[in-house]
Amino acid sequence: MATWMNKKQIASYLGKSTRTIDRWLQSGYLPAPKLLNGRKIWSTVMIDKWINKQPDFKTPDKTAEPAAWMRDLIN
Question: Which phi and psi (to 5°) does residue 59 adopt?
Answer without folding.
Answer: -90, 150
